Every structure is written in structure tokens, then in C-alpha cells.
Amino acid sequence: MPAILKNEWKSGWKSLLIWALSVGGMGLICIILYKGMEDSMADMAESFATMGAFSDAFGMSTLSIATLKGYFATEIGTIHALGSSMFAASIATVILSKEEDGHTAEYTFTLPVSRGKVIAMKFFAVLLNLICFTLICGMLYEVGFVFLGETDFGSIFTECMLFQLMMNIEIAAICFVISAVSKKNRLGIGISVATLLYVYDLMARVVPDLKDAIFISPFSYSNATSIFAGESRDCVALILGTIMIVIMTVGAGMIYAKRDLAS
Predict the structure, then answer these.
(1) Residue 49 CB neighbours (<10 A)
(2) pLDDT for 124-133, tens place per residue?
(3) How far, in Å, CA of 16 to CA of 163, rounded?
């Protein structure tokens, strides 16, 4: 089992580093740029706060981008949510299907390890990647805060990153099912799942008929503006997210364990 995890890590650490440095680096640059734009942020904040549905969708009616806290939540929070969810989808969608698509299934699944343990190790590899991604991005954002002399975020920043991590695990679990039922690389479908869930969350924040069902999207409980504004987490969304992670992960394993694999 450790050999499988080691192999997944060796084959994916470069991709992890590229994604993490790209998303985290973009966030770091945006944080550093805040200092130069601070004087003009007050006027911009007033304009953005009165843009109706647009302001509601991106949380600009809740937090002011004239403050670093509001700027981080609305701007960097959006960058991290989109970037991290696409990374989660990209690795989980291909983690199983690549064995058949690359014609390595006949080797991997003839190892003296049960197929269930192989599947478990592959999902653990996804979790390890997501945790490392979150840590790298979090450290880069912290560098930006230190550069600006900001040390007051504390636990609320950690809370935001943890909920973002949970959101990514849920998306990865959904895409794990896609990987379990596919014989080919379905990366496009996985990215589409993450994008659609994000778009649904935006729509649910501005369309009255959808607000009661906003909990369907994992972006609902991981929304940075809601967390930094001190709003309580939606318990229904969190419970549903936890259930989805368990059901999707176990379901994907059961489906894949019983499949006839193409060599």
C-alpha cells in the first residue's frame, strides 16, 4: 500500500506544486497590491456595494473591500475557491480512470493487494494533495499578511481555509465517482462539475427561488465573505457535505471494485 501512495505522489507532486504556486502566488500578489490601492479602495467599495445582484453574489454588500479583511474575502477568497476546486476536480477525476486509459490496470490490480485497498490509497493520495495544496496556499497568503503588517486575522483565516479544504474534498469525492465509472480521461467533466457548483452558488445568492436550496453547493458553507463577516455556518450544508463525501467515496469504491477493467 505505501508503494501505491508513493507512486501517486511521485507522479503528481509537480502538478500539485504548479497548481498551488499558481493559485497561492496569484493570491499573494493580490494581497501585496492592496497596499498600493488602499487609498482608492474607499470610493471603489461604495460603488461595488451598490451594484445590486453583483454585490450580493460576491459578498461586496456584506464586507467592504476598503478593508484588508473584506478585500481578501471577496477577491482572494474567490480566486482560491475557484482555483482549489478545479485542482480537486482535476486530480480526483483521473485518479482511477488513468489506469485503464493508460493501459496500466493489468499491472496495478494484479499486485498482492486487494482492489479495495488500492482504491483507498488512491483516494488518500487525493486527500494528501488537497491538504498540501491548502497548506502551501495558506502559507503564501500569510506571507502577504506579514508583508502588510497584518496579524489580526488569526482563527478566522484558519477557519476559512479549513472550510475551503472540506469543500474541495466534497468536490473530489463527486469527481471520484466520475473516475470510477469512466474508462477514459474525463477531466473536462470534472472541471465542469466544479464550475457548475460555483455558478449555482452565485445564482442562489441572488435568485430568491434558489436561496432556500443554496446548501446543495459546497461553496455555500465555504464562502469566504460569509466566514469573514462572522455569519454562522449552515448546518444543513455541512451535514449534507459530510454525507456526500462518505457516500460518494464509498460508492465510487464499490462501483470500481466490481467493474471489469480494460487492460
Answers:
(1) 17
(2) 999 999 999 9
(3) 20
pLDDT per residue as tens digits for the range 25-49: 999 999 998 887 766 666 665 665 5
Residue 233: left if φ>0, alpha if ψ -120 to 50, beta else—which one? Answer: beta
Which of 200, 182, 184, 202 lies closest to 192 in space, CA to CA? 200
Contacts of 46 (CB under 8 A, 6+ apart): none
SS (H, E, C) the chain: CHHHHHHHHHHHHHHHHHHHHHHHHHHHHHHHHHHHHHHHHHHHHHHHHCCCHHHHHHCCCCCCCCCHHHHHHHHHHHHHHHHHHHHHHHHHHHCCHHHHHCCCHHHHCCCCCCHHHHHHHHHHHHHHHHHHHHHHHHHHHHHHHHHHCCCCCCHHHHHHHHHHHHHHHHHHHHHHHHHHHCCCCCHHHHHHHHHHHHHHHHHHHHCHHHHCCHHHCCCCCCCHHHHHCCCCCCHHHHHHHHHHHHHHHHHHHHHHHCCCCCC
The string of pLDDT tens digits covering residues 103-139 is 565 556 566 667 778 888 889 999 999 999 999 999 9
pLDDT band of residue 180 (cuts 50, 70, 90) is confident
Whole-number Å distance between alpha carbons of 194 and 87: 9
Residue, of 33 and 233, whose pLDDT is higher: 33
CB atoms under 10 Å from CB of 33, counted, come to 13
* Burial class of residue 249 in the structure, from the number of CB atoms within 10 Å of its CB (0-12 exposed, 13-18 middle, 19+ buried): buried
